[in-house]
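Trying the structure run again after the queue cleared.
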Amino acid sequence: MKTFIAPIFLALGLTTFVVQAQDQLTADVAPQVELEQCYLKGIAEQLRCGTLQVPENYAEPDGKTISINFAVLPAVRESKQNDPLLILAGGPGQAATELANMIEQAFQSVRQQRDILLIDQRGTGKSHPLSCSMSHVEELVKTDEAIDLAEVAAQCLAKFEDTDLTQYHSVNAIRDFEAVRAALGYQQVNLYGGSYGSRAGLIYMREAPESVRSAVLDAVAPVQVVVGPFGRHGAESFARLVQRCAASQVCNSTFPGLGATYTELMAQLEANPVPLTVRDPLTNEPIEILVTAGRFSSVMRVGLYHPTTRQMLPYVIERTANGDYTPLTGLFGSTMAQSELYMGLTLSVLCSEDLSRVTPELLAADGDNTFIGSRTGDAFIDMCSVWPQQQRPDAWFEPVNSAIPTLLLSGDLDPVTPPAWGDMAAETLSNSRHLIAPQGAHTIVGHTCANKLASQFIKDLDLEALDASCLTKQRPQPFILNSNGKGL
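Done. Tokens:
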């Protein structure tokens, strides 16, 4: 079975000037690259941006080069520390500079004393982007079975005939980040990585441990696990939602038998998909879509990522089951409006590093659920069938052993990276502490007090001193009960 495409994945104004020695980013080493005054979306103040040329293939240093784009959010205080916070974006396929506004808000406290460094991973943003749209309007009227994701991937692949896609992998990304760090004169960095960024952080700790002062890994994806098939984890998160609704008198009386309603609705959509006309969230033009079981379950799965959308799902399920598609199309539209990943980078990383390790047994276990089945894993298998792949060393997937001070963060409701993965990573991180937010979902820095805990940790590196009680005090978001927001 296939799935709806987009939910699988989730402007600079430049004036050049050369940084002089007295305007160093560290007190010790003058930057070796030209920086430019720039603006990033969502941040009103002027920042500093630049690019650095690196080999596409590090085994061929005199061969083709690509440009790595980065931005610096300067520390507020003049008496700043010389080890910035380096942001490792998720995905794989997110561009760090495109997350600037969110990062700046989450880490305002860190920025008082430290620069924040955003580097677009190769294949994203302005670092030789491997961009392909996954929101093909003509695909939205097809049944799940009629969508050929291998053909979609092949069309994307055709755009990059002059690019060695096998060089767009996690280890080369860390080499790029290290090149930027050195060129800017930073001796060490503090890492924040969320989701896939947590895996990038672990790889950074393995490949360049002397360059890492500390690491905050949020929604942890250890290198030894396979990323891509998310059916089982999504089903477990959805089961928690159903259980909580059943335990709530008001939710259970409003949406009785929520789990059974969902299962029956999925069966109905499998047999009889529903055609609808909705407004494109970007153009406001009417577009035709076919509500299939695959599209519906994909929107539900993405809705589990954040407490704000989780609280809407019982209402969306109940109204859809009763033939009212307005709440669903609203949630569907917000999903479509989200920034897509750079699909060429997503596939270049996952096809060689994860899907190559998938076994029939893993896929069967992942698909053994009534929530979304094996749709996520099947989708990646289809796309990777046409994507260039290269066998990676077994050592890449061995647990990362490190004594670097590391704060691990998990959300107990996470539908993608369960807390068990954080425990797994902690087993070989001798100087770590794993905190779990009972009401947290995916990447909890964005919706719990974890950002404050991370900021304190980066400041003093004292894991034991962190008072994590604020995570347990957070109350669950109330369920939305009707179109007027009853329940809030």
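Confidence is low (pLDDT under 50) at residues 1-30. Worth checking whether this holds up in the mutant runs.
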